[in-house]
Design goal:
Layout lengths: L2 H23 L16 H27 L3 H27 L24 H9 L2 H29 L3 H25 L1
Helix pairs in contact: 1-3, 1-6, 2-3, 2-4, 2-5, 3-6, 5-6
Length: 191
């Protein structure tokens, strides 16, 4: 196989993987209205609050990748994640507001032991990525985002195990599926 054929094959693989990530993450689908089922428990609220907490750092990282990533596949992935998470945030915020719940999770570390703790605010990661040399940026970005998406999966797993609201549990399952697909794709890009 010559370099041109290999390049085309890798390009098709990257396109297919991006399409899979977009499909699994629900990118482009209109957000549904808040659940008609208004019963909820602390696990439902915690999951939604954690989604808010994870969104801000991810938003900062993906915005930086849009500017600095050298590979088009990394830029496409960052854009897809940004759109998907913005749609998810609309749903999350609507539920929390409907239930008159705070959008920020409690800071007591004991409350977050089952799902890996609270995420940072993203400032340290953004500072690190801003200083990263161009030839190392993509790999550092992917490594950081893999860790962050793993944290989201842990929060979603806690929701599916302990939540009672069927719509929120369904969101948690979609989040789990999409983030796992994203992580698998990012692992291939990071090699």
């Amino acid at each position: 196989m010559n370099a041109r054929t290999l390049g085309r094959s890798l390009g098709m693989l990257a396109g297919a993987a991006t399409a899979l990530v977009l499909a699994l993450s629900g990118c482009g689908s209109a957000p549904s209205a808040p659940a008609a089922n208004t019963s909820f428990n602390d696990a439902d609220v915690m999951f939604l609050q954690m989604m808010v907490a994870y969104h801000t750092p991810a938003e900062k990282l993906t915005a930086l990748a849009a500017q600095r990533a050298s590979r088009s596949e990394v830029k496409q992935l960052a854009a897809a994640i940004s759109v998907t998470e913005a749609d998810e945030q609309k749903k999350v915020m609507a539920w929390l507001q409907e239930w008159n719940q705070p959008t920020e999770p409690a800071t007591d570390k004991v409350l977050h032991a089952d799902h890996g703790g609270l995420p940072g605010d993203g400032k340290t990661e953004v500072a690190t990525l801003t200083k990263a040399p161009a030839d190392k940026f993509d790999k550092e970005f992917l490594t950081m985002l893999i860790g962050q998406q793993h944290g989201v999966v842990e929060a979603a797993r806690a929701e599916t195990a302990g939540g009672v609201n069927t719509e929120v549990k369904a969101l948690a399952q979609r989040v789990t599926d999409s983030r796992r697909a994203q992580v698998a794709y990012m692992l291939t890009l990071a090699q």
